[in-house]
Amino acid sequence: MKRNFFIFCAKFLLLFLFFNNAFAGSSDPRQFIQEIVDEAKKILVNSNSDKYKSDKLTEIALATVDIKGVGYYTLGSYRKDLTKEQKKEYTILFEKYFLKTFVSRLTDYSEPKIDVVSAVKKNEKYTIVSSILLATNKRAEVKIDWRVYTKDPDKPLIRDLIIEGLSLARTQKEEFSSIIESNDGDINALFSKLKEFINS
Amino acid sequence: MKRLITAAVTVFLLWANVAYAGSTGSEKLKKSSSSSANECFEGFSRAMFSFNQAVDTTIFEPIAKGYRVLPMVIRNGSSNVMNNISHLLSIPNNILQGDFAGAGNTVARFAINTTVGILGFFDPAEKMGFPDKGKEDYGQTLGVWGTGSGCYFVLPILGPTTVRDFTGTVANLWGDPWYHMTTASDPMIADGMFEDSDYWISRGTSSVDFRAKNIESFDNIEKNSIDLYASIKSFYLQNRNKKISNSDTIVETQDESDWEEIDTN
After folding, report:
1. Cα–Cα distance, A38 to A149 (Å, whole number)
2. Which chain A residues are closer than 8 Å to B233 by Cβ?
3. What phi and psi, each to the nearest 5 degrees, are found at residue B215?
4. Which site among A162, B50, B183, B235 is 20 to 30 Å from A179 CA-CA?
5. β-pairing verdict for A157-163 and B159-162
6. Alpha helices (H) along B157-224
7. What confidence tens digit (pLDDT) does each residue in B175-227 have?
């Protein structure tokens, strides 16, 4: 009994350590992005199944992206008008929506070769890390910049991806805003669209 | 005909209030929110957007996919030729924007690539220290001069634009040496060397080349958008702002103000 208990504790401890360190990441923003890129490259090899890629990319996103922060940014000024319940519902919906698009966007790239080239600290809260997705015979070289949130210097988090100068977070924000505006400011219209997308 | 177009553009500009009386110039434009462009007539634009989507699916995308079957060397070569021709439009715009170093670079690129690069098929200028700094057009020049974007709309076939960029598109025809060399057969420049069709073939090839380079990106955007029209509008306006700022550095072009207030810790 005692032995079984110790084995159980040891397994639990190992599992805890594994998940706690899986994407602990560096506190240096440049190194942090380099580690994510390296990890994604390993996941996106052709021999891995779609299910495996999806599960692993979801793990990476949950550990390295400030999904809640991106969600609030994306909602723009509308978030100030939300009730507590609406905010809670939005946070849940946005996370599901974000993870689905994140996985979908990345799984289109097989074994991406990304070079992290520089990092510029904008202020205490943000550092922009620049990288290059190297060209293949199908597409040209692509510049990718990462907005890293560094308010907690020990735990940097990604808040935006800027591809060839175009911010994905800004685009998402304008998309959401368009849906709300064309429905007379009704946030429920956005919730319906998000649910529709998540369940599609 | 020219008078009619001029009058139509003038009325359109006044109606759309493109003048942006309070604009403080390119510095303001550089970091302006891309959502600041209001819709001119959203219903019409959304209808045109759907029409363009249908045309793209039935005509442009299949042609682009066919183009992608060509060997890489041919695709790169034709892309280089189109890019080299576009330098003719960039040069006057470099000058109008006061970017004389850029104009010198573009002139050198055009001269080297047209001769050593065999009519622009190859790009030896890049290796000789004259990098491609991107295309410049009259819409960008108006932006650099401080003209606001005006409202946003979608044209059939030509796609997204703003009042400023549409004005630039009209000016691009009148102020493009390549247009005059081909369609107007200007005897001062190239008497009898080109025909009208050369201009339209080059424009068509340029569009197909662009579409072929972006097949996966477009599919990806389409698959992951809950309002595709709004996504394309955002991408278009961000891209124009970036081009007007003439900066490759993301740090200089991203608007910080709306990120500052997001605090979840």
Report:
1. 20
2. 174, 178
3. -60, -50
4. A162
5. unpaired
6. 163-174, 177-182, 187-190, 196-213, 215-223
7. 888 888 887 655 566 666 788 888 889 989 999 999 998 898 899 899 999 99
What string of DSSP letters covers A66-95?
A: -HHHHHHHHHGGGGGG--HHHHHHHHHHHH
B214 SS3 class: coil
- Tokens 């189109």 belong to B82
Residue A135 in contact with partner chain B when CB distance is under 8 A: no
Interface test with A, best of B251, B256, B261 (most A CBs within 10 A): B251
- Interface touch A128/B254, C-beta < 8 Å: yes
Report DSSP state, residue B56: I
Alpha carbon B86 to its chain's center: 10
- The verdict on A191 touching B (C-beta cutoff 8 Å) is no
ipTM of the complex: 0.81
Chain A residues inside the 8 Å CB shell of B254: 128, 147, 162, 167
| Burial call B206-233: b when 16+ CB within 10 Å, e when fewer | bbbbebbbebeeeebbeebbbbbbbbbb
- List, in sequence order, every residue forming a beta bridge with A132; answer none if it has no partner: A115, A143
Provide the token pair at B116.
């050593």
pLDDT digits (tens, 9 = 90+) for B60-69: 999 999 999 9
On whether the CB atoms of residues A169 and A74 are closer than 8 A, the answer is: yes
Residue B161, strand partner residues:
B153
Mutate to test the interface with B, among A125, A171, A177 (most CBs of B within 10 A): A171
Record the pTM.
0.82
A78 φ, ψ to 5°?
-65, -25
Cβ neighbors of B86 (< 8 A, separation 6 or more) are: B135, B206
Across the interface, whether the CB atoms of A174 and B262 are under 8 A apart is answered no
Cβ distance of B239 and A197 shorter than 8 Å? no
Contact check, Cβ <8 Å, A137/B72: yes
What band does A45 get if pLDDT is binned at 50, 70 and 90?
Answer: confident
